[in-house]
Amino acid sequence: MEELQAVGEELVELAPDRLKKIDLPEDLRAAVRTAQRMTRHDEARRRQLQYIGRVMRDIEDPEPIRKALAALRGDSAEETGRLHRIERLRTALLADEAVLFGIAETYPAVDLQRLRSLRRAALSEQEQGKSPRNYRAIFQFLKGLEILDDRATGKDGHDQ
Questions:
Q1: pLDDT tens digit string along 63-90?
Q2: Are residues 11 and 28 located together in one domain of the fold?
Q3: Each residue's pLDDT tens digit, 88-145
Q4: Are residues 49 and 104 in the same domain?
Q5: Dihedral of CA 70/135/110/93: which sign?
Q6: Domain range holding 42?
Q7: How far is residue 149's CA from residue 154's CA, in Å, rounded to a whole number?
Q8: Which parts pass through the membrane (predicted)?
Q9: Quick check: 13 and 45 in contact, CB under 8 A?
Q10: Distance CA 109, CA 153 (A)
Q11: Could you give the CA distance from residue 11 to residue 27 in angstroms, rounded to a whole number?
Q12: Which carries the bigger pLDDT value, residue 2 or residue 143?
């Protein structure tokens, strides 16, 4: 019971945009929103957190919620592996422009011109010893491609 209440507390601490990404029953989502609006950490908030724990106990399988929270924290092996794959792809792209064609095959909707431009800018930054702004932008671009591909294929981004 305490573990489920701890999961509920973790949900309350999430930013609203991150909370939207987790599939929750509507009564639990409403209880979490109510707790998020409580700014003082007083008795009323403690009771609301206990109520969230009670609602969590009524959920048949809380495991998907735990997995989603782990993915948001970056604790899940799947999420870590996904980020490492993106990093390897970025490194390969910077080393060889021919990787662009592989990316185009894997992600048909990719904006190759934008990716090519980011690659050139990142290589230029490296040569000049500038801050790696475009290097990071490539990572975010590739991450966005993978998320769009997951949605198109019906994956939820957490069960890869």
A1: 888 888 887 776 667 777 888 899 999 9
A2: yes
A3: 999 999 999 999 989 989 888 889 999 999 999 999 999 999 999 999 999 999 988 8
A4: no
A5: negative
A6: 2-73
A7: 9
A8: none
A9: no
A10: 13
A11: 13
A12: 143
Pair 65, 81 in one domain = no
Distance in angstroms (rounded) separating the CA atoms of residues 96 and 82: 21
Count of structural domains within the chain:
2
Q: Is the dihedral of CA 32, 17, 3, 36 positive or negative?
A: negative
In a domain, 95, yes or no: yes
Crossing angle of helices 77-95/112-128, nearest 10°? 80
pLDDT tens-digit map of 17-40: 888 888 899 999 999 999 999 988
The pLDDT value recorded for residue 3 is 82
Tell me if 158 is assigned to some domain: no
- The dihedrals phi and psi of 125, each to the nearest 5 degrees, come to -60, -45
HEC readout, the chain: CHHHHHHHHHHHHCCHHHHHCCCCCHHHHHHHHHHHHCCCCCHHHHHHHHHHHHHHHHCCCCHHHHHHHHHHHCCCHHHHHHHHHHHHHHHHHHHCCCHHHHHHHHCCCCCHHHHHHHHHHHHHHHHHCCCCHHHHHHHHHHHHHHHHHHHHHCCCCCCC
